[in-house]
Design a protein that fits this description.
Blueprint: H1 13-19, H2 22-25, H3 28-34, E1 41-45, H4 51-58, E2 62-67, H5 70-79, E3 84-87, E4 99-105, H6 115-125, E5 126-137, H7 143-155, H8 170-179, E6 182-195, H9 202-210, H10 212-215, H11 220-238, E7 239-240, E8 243-257
Parallel strand pairs: 1-2, 1-4, 2-3, 4-5
Antiparallel strand pairs: 5-8, 6-8, 7-8
The chain binds S-adenosylmethionine.
The site of S-adenosylmethionine (SAM) has 23 residues, from helix 2 and helix 4.
């Protein structure tokens, strides 16, 4: 299966692992929550470069990693040639045989076009009693980063950028899951201030990696001043003596298909 998902941002898979490997590293507890069993069939939705897919496989499960980015999937296949990966859009995928579990780390907030469609695809991919275990940005995620961006954009006379994320509250996401036919087993909502160790240029580096679509319409001559201003505005909330921190809020859940 190979098809395009034009609404996706273009991920830089190499930069992702070298500078933003913390995303996968912080997903390790989520794999524990999934608790994959030997022989189980697990689908990793928005698998990125496959680091957590491989972790799940190392517990004996048979895993398929799906991601909307060709670059991510190419890197995943190169890194883990023994595992199965495919390009696919989380809003619109089907599987030949139902899975025991669907896992998703740090991806569902990117699948913002239609969260209900994503949940329905997951439901259809699971057998009854199958688990859906995920973590995504929750309401208030990156609030200081986003406020700095919006102010900097306005100060530079630019139109408000379209923010590509979906950061639901626990209640909102729980309702969506229950309405779709899932029983909730766990919902957690917590702050996770995250050091941006590999972002020497702080919030500006974060914007370049995680919000490149916002920069697409920005005139070249404005870019440097815009990003410098994002840093100035974000610094009081996010720059510590030890370095920059991202103000992440995480929503973690485990649900079972009825
Ligand atoms: C922050 S990365 C997380 C990757 C991986 N799960 C991890 O923990 O390192 C988010 C991933 O979601 C993928 N993604 C974004 N939109 C998607 C979509 N509509 N369908 C499938 N994957 C998507 C991106 O390509 C990216 O690899």
């Amino acid at each position: 299966m190979r098809y395009d998902t034009p609404s996706l941002i273009r991920w830089n898979a190499r930069a992702y692992d070298s500078s933003f490997g913390y995303v996968s590293a912080q997903g390790a507890p989520l794999v524990d929550l999934l608790d994959p069993q030997p022989g189980e069939r697990v689908l990793d939705l928005g698998c990125g470069t496959g680091v957590l897919t491989a972790e799940i496989a190392s517990r004996g499960a048979r895993v398929l990693g799906i991601d909307g980015s060709h670059s991510m999937i190419e890197t995943a296949i190169a890194q883990f040639p023994g595992l199965d990966f495919t390009v696919g859009d989380g809003h619109d995928f089907t599987v030949a045989e139902p899975y025991d579990a669907v896992f998703s780390n740090a991806a569902l907030h990117w699948l913002s076009r239609d969260p209900d469609a994503v949940i329905e695809c997951v439901r259809m991919a699971l057998q009854p009693g199958g688990r859906f275990v995920g973590e995504l940005g929750g309401a208030g995620n990156c609030a200081a980063l986003i406020a700095a961006m919006l102010t900097a954009w306005r100060e530079h006379g630019l139109r408000d950028p379209h923010l590509p994320w979906y950061f639901p509250s626990p209640a909102e996401y729980a309702v969506r899951l229950e309405r779709a036919g899932f029983t909730l087993r766990l919902v957690e909502n917590f702050d996770r201030p995250t050091p941006l160790d590999d972002c020497p240029n702080g919030a500006a580096d974060w914007v370049r990696m995680f919000a490149p679509s916002l920069l697409e319409g920005v005139p070249v001559g404005t870019m440097e001043s815009l990003l410098r201003r994002v840093n100035e505005l974000a610094a009081p909330a996010l720059r510590r003596e030890s370095g920059w921190m991202a103000d992440y809020v995480r929503l973690r859940f485990a649900a079972v298909r009825q």
